[in-house]
Fold each of these.
Amino acid sequence: MKYKLIALDVDGTLLNDDHEISQQTKETIKAVAETGAEIILCTGRGPLNSIPFMEEMGLSGYVISHNGAATAKVDTKEIVHHFAMEPISLTPFMQYCREKGIHFDINTPYDMYVDSVDGLEPVVRNMYENYLTLPFNLPEWSSIKEPIVKFTMFGESKVIDEVYKDLSQWELELNMLRSGDYFIDLMNNEASKGNALKQLAMKRGIQQEEVLAIGNYFNDITMLTYAGKGIAMDNSPIEVKAAADEVTLSNNEGGVHAALLKHCLS
């Protein structure tokens, strides 16, 4: 099978634990792109901190960002598709987080807001620096002109485990998912990596069986199961591996390189 659209998760998949793309992986991705395959990133990050990786690899095309809530064109930065949330729907979650002392941020496609930038704890500030992003102070809703696409809660893994248990008891009208050991995301109920990948494939005239996806976490399951070939990293939780068609090496062992070599360059 010749794969025409290849979707790569970023953290824990394309990047190693030092938040870098290895030179070997860059060269393999370039070789695959030269065969005519379209390579995109499909990530929980926003466009501003995912597009630079496409530019680093010399790629244009698209990034599916915010776990499928917004898709951006790399060269023009245009948002070509998004799933928005009503701001009022976030009120109970904001109240919960403030009462429990859970850090949260609110995302439009290109901007991120927190209660107080100056009040960020060092561990939170360091997290944003690692993800190459800078939040702003949350203004009145009427001052935010872009659509709200994602609400993220951040904390120690055991704390986020408890938050997930708490919120699982609520009657949710939003899509709630674990996007990392330290994160819970809330989005429009239709927003997911799999749905956004489907929308992009249809836009590009590419059949489902011509799509290959590689990921490593629970937020990747929908794209792994949508794709004609879904590949999980060896550093994935067992549930993610079970949802995939096969497992490649870990993100620190060149798993993306190995998978692309096997399925696109053999």
Amino acid sequence: MLKIRCPWCGDDPLYIAYHDEEWGVPVKDDATLFEFLLLETFQAGLSWITILRKRENFRKAFDNFDYRKIAGYEQQKIDRLLQDSGIIRNKLKVHSAVTNAQAFIKIQEEFGSFSNYIWKFVAGTPIKNKLQSMAEAPANTLLSDTISKDLKKRGFKFVGSTVVYAHMQATGMVNDHLVSCFRYNEV
């Protein structure tokens, strides 16, 4: 039987796998939340498929997305990252990965986990939109504006409202699968 998917994943096998297995699935694990946050910040201004294609390179370059290690990166490691053609070599984004890892740990200390912090914005329950077409999907919302402002206040970088909304979609805080998509009711 033919599966109906959100049209944004097209026919790229990597995009289809991401759509079918990850996008919109509620994530409560801090390590995975940080991975998506790091990838979303590097995605700013680029296409998500570009990041997906480099995801394993990012995983290797950034110590398997270990935020504790990343928080302690010194200039020598940052310099190596800036020479790594397997990732996005944007100086500000590389530096923000370190800053964000440090801010991530501070949130964990305050709230017990980053998951406790981020999911409180939706009272622990995903927002389930009823999108009929991708044209209805917002790039940001009042809620993503609020989260973005709070993250920035806490020292995060590259967490504008659009990046935050993409993170919310990716980690299942919001279900933006089209109602016609087979994943809509699964997640």
